[in-house]
Amino acid sequence: MCKIYVASSWRNEIQNIVVQALQRWGHEVYDFKNPSGRTGFSWAWIDKNWQNWNTKQYREALNHPLAVSGFKSDFNAMEWANICIMVLPCGRSAHTEAGWMKGAGKVVYVLQFSSEEPELMYKIYDGIISSYDELEKMFS
């Protein structure tokens, strides 16, 4: 079976459904919200006022031990996986992860269950999956 990195947003409500389905179908799946042996990362753990940081504070926070540990967990999983599924809607981190993985020669799919603004550069990826049934046919 496959080793899959699911890239998405903390706010994406279907991310958990996708992770659970892929696991049920026998794949090893990295879940950034619940990585094995630890919890996911949140900027609020570093500073409750993180949304008001200036650039200097943000740069400094990237070196905080919690940020270093969270990055290491996610990046190690990106190196480990052979497939990335980017679940839309998502933000900058998921797009960065998917782009890095494609650049590293890994297979990347975009999972888009609802209407989203078209993105020309998704053409670099290996496909756009548009339904749960299509996901199941590809990965079950």
What does this structure look like?
Strand 1 (3-7), helix 1 (15-24) and strand 2 form a beta-alpha-beta unit. The model has no long low-confidence stretch (mean pLDDT 95). This protein has one domain: Rossmann fold (3-Layer(aba) Sandwich). Strands 2-1-3-4-5 form a five-stranded parallel β-sheet, sandwiched between helices. With 140 residues, the chain is of the alpha/beta class. The longest helix has 16 residues, at 65-80. The protein is 38% helix and 15% strand. The chain is globular.
Quick summary of this structure?
This protein has helices at residues 15-24, 55-61, 65-80, 92-103, 132-139, and strands spanning 3-7, 28-30, 83-87, 107-111, 127-129. With 140 residues, it is of the alpha/beta class.
How much helix, percentage-wise, in residues? 25-40%
Radius of gyration, whole Å = 16 Å
CATH level 3 topology? Rossmann fold
Number of helical elements:
5
Q: Which spans have pLDDT < 50 for at least 5 consecutive residues?
A: none
Spatial order of strands in the largest sheet: 2-1-3-4-5
Mean pLDDT across all amino acids? 95
Q: Distance between the terminal alpha carbons, to the nearest Å?
A: 10 Å
The total domain count is: 1
Q: Report the CATH architecture.
A: 3-Layer(aba) Sandwich
Please trace the helix and strand order, writing H or E for each element.
EHEHHEHEEH
SS-based class: alpha/beta
CATH class: Alpha Beta
Task: Please give the largest β-sheet.
Answer: 5 strands, parallel
